[in-house]
Amino acid sequence: MVPEHPDAPAGETTALALKILVAGGFGVGKTTLVGAVSEIRPLRTEEMLSEAGRTVDDTDGVGHKVTTTVAMDFGRITIRSGLSLYLFGTPGQDRFWFLWDELAQGALGAVVLADTRRLEDCFPAVDYFEHRKIPFVVAVNCFSGARRHDARDVCRALDLDPGTPVVLCDARERASGKEVLIQLVEYAGRMHTARLLDSVG
């Protein structure tokens, strides 16, 4: 959490910029979500999938996918006056997970995108944020033709800690993605406040 204008004169409202990660399995819609909500042209580090990569990347269920993120996606969205979110989309394949620790530094929280047709693909992201005590929400990307599941069923299937929000979304829709981010900011705010109170109590 860093002020965008730390040298602003006294009395002026300082804009706050919060760092948010967007994580999840391969082909779940992370790049799509960042691109849909970003008010700036998103930075993307995508490369074409190669035949050699198909031996290490599980493309089952995402056969239409022709590119993959190899470092990160970056975008920015203003939630309200004085509050901006900087979005960092993580790569989904195992071989790029070494980048996650670097990207996670200073993050307020994370969105874990999930596809109920391949729910196990988001287990590593859930474990990562739980172990590091980084607040996160699970956003179920509702793909066309996929069976819809209740948020409570997804929560049970992922064995989430009590209170971890699960929301349904369409990663292609800006309004849907923005609502996910708002829920994350509110949840992370509650978590950080509770931890602060515990530390002084």
What composes the largest sheet? 8 strands, mixed
Total of DSSP H or I helical runs spanning 4+ residues: 5
Mean pLDDT: 84
Question: How would you describe the shape?
Answer: globular
Beta-strand proportion: 25-35%
Separation, N- and C-terminal Cα atoms: 24 Å
Number of strands: 8
Structural category: alpha/beta
Helix content: 25-40%
Radius of gyration: 17 Å
Q: Spell the H/E element sequence.
A: EEHEEEHEHEHEH
Please mark out the parts with pLDDT under 50 across 5 or more consecutive residues, or reply none. Answer: 5-12
Give the structure's gist in a few sentences:
This protein is an alpha/beta fold.
Blueprint (SSEs and pairs):
Layout: E1 2-3, E2 16-24, H1 30-37, E3 43-48, E4 67-80, E5 83-89, H2 100-104, E6 109-114, H3 123-131, E7 136-141, H4 151-158, E8 166-169, H5 174-200
Parallel strand pairs: 2-5, 2-6, 6-7, 7-8
Antiparallel strand pairs: 1-2, 3-4, 4-5
